Amino acid sequence: MKGLRNRKRNIESSQVMRRKVFLDPYLPLITIVNHLARRQRTTSISSKSAALTSQSSESVLRSNHRTIYTAGRPPWYNSAGQQVQPFVIGICGGSASGKTTVATKIIEALDMPWVTLLSMDSFYKVLTPEQHEQALANEYNFDHPDAFDFDLLIPTLQRLKEGRKVDVPIYNFVSHGRESKTKTMYGANVIIFEGILAFYNPEVLAMCDMKIFVDTDADVRLARRLKRDICERGRELEGVLKQYITMVKPSFQHYIAPAMVHADIIVPRGGDNTVAIELIVHHVHTQLTKRGFKVREKLASAFVGQPLPSSMYLLPTSPQVSGLHTFIRNKDTPRDEFVFYSKRLIRLVIEYALSLLPFEEVMVDTPQGVNYIGKRCSAERICGVSILRAGETMEQAVCDVCKDIRIGKILIQTNLSTGEPELYYLRLPKDIKDYLVILMDATVATGAAAMMAIRVLLDHDVPEENILIVSLLMAESGVQTIAYVFPQVRIVTSAVDPEISDKFYVLPGIGNFGDRYFGTEPAEVS
Ligand SMILES: Nc1ncnc2c1ncn2[C@@H]1O[C@H](COP(=O)(O)OP(=O)(O)O)[C@@H](O)[C@H]1O
Ligand SMILES: Nc1ccn([C@@H]2O[C@H](COP(=O)(O)O)[C@@H](O)[C@H]2O)c(=O)n1
After folding, report:
1. Are 144 and 163 part of one and the same domain?
2. Atom number, ligand 1, closest to the C-alpha of residue 269
3. 171 C-alpha to center of ligand 2: Å?
4. pLDDT digit string (tens) for 321-355?
C-alpha cells in the first residue's frame, strides 16, 4: 500500500521536477514550496485537483499575489490578442476506475505546461452534524448527486474556462469535510475535470470539449477501492464493504454507467490502455493547434506594408539621434561604448515618452516675484514595468526622470524549440490598475513578447489607454501588431526597421540588445 501511495507521489513530483513548474503563476515561491511540502505530507487526504499538473495561471490574473515562478507559460491568446478558451476534458467513471490515473497519464503524455486537473471530489458538500454521524457509520450516500455542491462546481469550472482565477476547496476524505484552506487555481490551455458524476450535470457536460469514460471491471474497482480506502482514507474493511454494497454500487448502476452514452471515448482498463491515451493526446494537440495558441510565426509577417499607425510616436530624428543609432548598430562597437551610447539614446526615448503624458497649466512665482505660467504632469501615478532582460536596461533612465517611481518586472523568454514567448516571472506594483504604465523593452521584433506583457497588464485591469510601450528600436511588423491588437496602447520608439529575420531579429537592427549590453552569449532559436 505504501508502494501505491509512493507511486502517486512520484507521479506528482516527477511532473513538478520535469517542468519546474508550478501551480499558479501568481503564487509566491514560498507558498509553492509549502504547498508541495504539504502535498507530500497529505497525499491521503487531499483532493486531487490541480497540483499534479504543470499548471496553470489565470489568464492573467486578478490575484493578490504578484510573484510568479513557472515553467514558462506559453501564449493563452491568439495572434489577435484575444483570449482563447482552454480545452476541457471531462473524465467520468466509477469509483477507483482509474480516472485520476488516466488524467495523470494524459498530462504526462501531453508534455506541455499549463494543464490543470480539477477533481469533482473538491466539491463534496459540507455535512451537517447529523450527516457527519451518518458518514462515520458509512451510511451517508457520497455517490448520490445531492452529495455534490453543483452551485459551486459550475461557476468554478466556468471561471476556469474563461481563464480566470478560482479558489477550490480542498477535500479531506478522512474527516469527510473541507479543509479550512482553499487551493488557488488559474485558467490553463487544457483543463481536465474528473469525477464519478462528471457527466451528471448538463451544464458541466456542455463545458467539456471532450468526454472520456473510464470503464473498469467492477471487481477490479472494488479491490482497488478496498485497498485505497483502508490505506489512504482511514476506513475499516466492514465499513468499506457496507458503503459499497448499499450506496456505491447502486449509484454506479443508476447514475454512472448510464452516463457512458455521453462519452466521446470509452477507455477500457483505465491507465493501462496506452493506445487510448495516445489517441486522446493526439486529438488534444490537434485541437490546441486549431485554437491558435501559436502566435509568433503569424505575427512575423503580419500587417507589413501598411502605413504606420497613429498610436506610434517616433522620436524626432536629428543628427544626434542618427549618430547614437550608428554607434549601437555597428557590430564593431565595443561593449563599453555600446552601453554608453545606448544609455544616451534610452534617456532621449524615455524623456520623449514622458512628453506624451497629460500636462496641465500651472502658475508659479519666480524669485523675481513675477508669475510664470508653465506645465505640470497631471498623471498622478506612473510606474515602469520592464520586460526582462533587455527592458531592464531602461529602468535607470525612468528612475532618473520620475522621482520615486515603482518598477515592475516581467520575464518573458523565447522557448527555443517552439519559438513562442513564455511567461516566467512577474512582479508588478500593487494596485497597478490605477497607474499609467511605461512598459519597457529595448527592441521589439514580432511584437510577441510585447503582446504577452501587454496582455498581462490588461489582465491586471490596467486600462489599455494607460499603457505606453517604449523601445529603442522596433520592427515594422511589431509596431503594426501591437497597434492592431491594442489600438489604445501608445507605442514610443526611436526607430522603425522594415524587416525581421527568420530567427526573429529586427533587420537591419542592433543584434541581440541584451547580449550586447550585458556581454552574454547569444541563445539561438532552433
Ligand atoms: N492500472 C492500474 N493498476 C493498478 N492500480 C491502479 C491502476 N489504476 C489505478 N490504480 C490504483 O487504484 C486506485 C484508484 O485509482 P484512481 O486513478 O485514483 O481512480 P479514480 O480517480 O477513478 O478513483 C489508486 O490507488 C490507484 O493507484
Ligand atoms: N467523505 C467521502 C467522500 C467520498 N467518498 C467516496 O469517494 C468516491 C469518489 O472518489 P473517487 O476518487 O473514487 O472517484 C465515491 O464513490 C464516494 O463513495 C467517501 O468514501 N467518503
Report:
1. yes
2. 1
3. 10
4. 999 999 999 999 999 999 999 999 999 999 999 99
Q: Which atom of ligand 2 is nearest to the CA of 235?
A: 20
d(CA 26, CA 426): 8
| Shared-domain flag, residues 329 and 257 | no
Same domain for 256 and 325, yes or no, is: no
Domain final residue, candidates 254, 271, 293: 293
The residue whose C-alpha atom lies closest to atom 9 belonging to ligand 1 is 98
Q: 173-207: string of b/e by CB count within 10 Å (b at 16+)?
A: beebbbbeeebbbbbbbbbbbbbbbbbbbeebeeb
C-beta 252 within 6 A of ligand 2: no
All three cell numbers of 456? 498581462
The residue type of 320 is Q
Q: In CATH, what number is assigned to the domain containing residue 174?
A: 3.40.50.300
196 shares its domain with 209? yes
Q: What is the pTM of this model?
A: 0.64
Grid coordinates of 516: 550586447
Residue 431 in any domain: the answer is yes
297-322 residue pLDDT tens = 666 666 667 788 999 999 999 999 99
Instruction: Note the ligand closest to the C-alpha atom of 220.
Output: 1
Q: How far is the CA of 97 from the centre of ligand 1 (A)?
A: 6
ipTM for the assembly:
0.98
User: What distance in angstroms lies between residue 114's CA and the mean position of ligand 2's atoms?
Assistant: 27
CA of 108 to the centre of ligand 1 (A): 16
What is the residue range of 415's domain? 297-518
